[in-house]
Amino acid sequence: MLTFLTRRIAGMTIVLTFMSFVVFMLIGLMPGDPIDIMIASNPDLTPADGERLKRLHGLDLPLWERYGNWLGGALSGDLGFSRTYNRPVLDILLPRLGNTVILLGLSSLVAIAIAIPLGVIAATRQQTPVDSAINLFCFAGISVPPFWLALIFILLFSVTLGWLPAGGMGAPDAGLIARLDFLVLPVTTLTIASLAGYTRFARAAMIEVLRQDYIRTARAKGLGPTRTVFGHGLRNAMLPLTTIVALDFGALFSGALITETMFGYLGMGKLIYDSILGNDFNLALVGLLLATLVVLIGNFLADIAYAVLDPRISFRALEAA
Amino acid sequence: MSAAEPVFGRPTAETPLFWQRLRRNRAAMASAVILIVVASLAMLAPAFESLLGVEATRVNLFNQYATPGSTHWLGTDEAGRDVFVRLLYGGRISLLVGLVAALGAAVIGTSIGLFAGYHGGRLDTLLMRTTDGVIALPLLPLLIVLAAIDLTKLGIPDGIANSEMTSLYRIVFIIAIVGWTTVARLVRAATLSIRTREFVRAAEAMGAGSTTIMLRHILPNVVSPIIVATTLSIGAVILLESVLSFLGLGIQPPIPSWGNMLTNAQELATRAPALAVWPGAVIFVTVMAFNFLGDGLQDALDPRSVRR
Questions:
Q1: How far is residue B171's CA from residue B245's CA, in Å, rounded to a whole number?
Q2: How far apart (Å, rounded) are the C-alpha atoms in residues B243 and A145?
Q3: CA geometry: angle at B8 spanning B2 and B11, to 5°?
Q4: Any idea where the domains of chain B sit in the sequence?
Q5: Which residues on neighbouring strands pair with residue B29, listed in sequence order?
Q6: Relative to the CA of A75, which of A176, B70, B88, B127 has its CA 20 to 30 Å away?
Q7: pLDDT given for residue B106 in this prediction
Q8: Contact between A84 and A275 (Cβ < 8 Å)
Q9: Distance from B169 to chain A by nearest Cα, in Å?
Q10: What is the ipTM of this complex?
């Protein structure tokens, strides 16, 4: 167990460090320089002041040396300031992270809660119209552009019917319940994107399980079809789904970026997008790293869930993998 | 393969059997027809322009938001441009990006998969860990960073870096360099099972180099998964292109793409909801057709996959 933890944390550290290097280098190639932007927006600053400021902030150093400085600062807990907000980046990122976690968590739960029964229904009624209808629904879910789906929802439920708000978050001091109105459309949009994949996978996994000998045994000893499927089949079929859900976290975060942007939901995805477009590079960099960390932790938790759910898998086996 | 016509009253060669299976799949056939129609319409965009007497790029502020009629089949947009013809031109771009980026990703993925699968060992572990890492990453924010890079800082002259066509090449490039993972995993898996076969061993014994073995002996045997994965990824690429163009980071106006036609749709949602509906509906139908076709190809190419 301990070896497993150490190895996974080491792996995550490597990925994060690598990501920070790549993103830092890429951000060095972004249009505009923070100091140039400062000079452009303040007529009192002369180019000489600009040079001085660049030296002061170490911006005249080569890129890799600047990365070294940044990394040193980051490791000692100084992640730097946001250019547009003039505050430490973590102060801005952490509340946004909370909002994104709510969005991701809710839509994952809803997606799984719908995908499992749909998958089971499709698997137990193979080649029937019900199966085909579910299959069609899945293909539609995979193929629909998420931002367009959001647009259609806004047109339908906010503009035409006026049932739900087209975007925003509600009053910040209102509780989660009071803000539910604002969550319905974003969560639905994000759910549909992942639901389709999960359902197809749940169906395939269930079909695989239903062909096993122990299912035939259960049926042979007189167990009804419902109890066979739910008592013996479901748990085994749902194990591989944990892996799929875990592998999907990155894609889910990408979906959250689109959904948040469309609905003006103040989450991390929208913040990263806005900060890239607004040349707030330090915020973008730390935001991207934090998003990666969230995804990695999600993967990690799913691995643990896998081992906990399946008594055949021990942490030793995970270590060997 | 006309020499391999049915001998015992049933087709024996792989090819006719494959066609037979594919033709029986109604969803895949309907998708193929839809894709042919969409592609032909996109090809005929200039013909429609002269037929209807409209131009995709002609701005006419006196004719904003025109309702559908005999000249403007789907009406006009916020700049008075014809929506139908713009959809056709946008289709050219979106299909082109989809095909080229998916092919590029397939080439990268196939090379990595063949290499990892054939050589095995540490190289395999390293390549596959990298693949898993790329799959797990939140790719969209990374793509946004890549799309926002200032190419002049890479030493590319300003005239080229900021031209309209560059936005096209750039999007193809960045989608290809992140989209190879599925193909790489599939090709590696197939390569692993084929490299131990007798004909590969024989080629090795006869002194064939590893490149020859990979390209001449293994590659032809892993074509099926590549075809399937590439067809499916064309759909995914079209979706991704539309997202990036919608966010203002993909294909740059005035070149229309299905994604950037939707850029202003959100602000105009109350004024002209139809502008939001058409491009998205076309993306939806096209991507769905590619997905059904890919699924059908998988069933047809893989004899073991009796559709369960």
A1: 9
A2: 7
A3: 45
A4: 86-301
A5: none
A6: B127
A7: 94
A8: yes
A9: 18
A10: 0.82
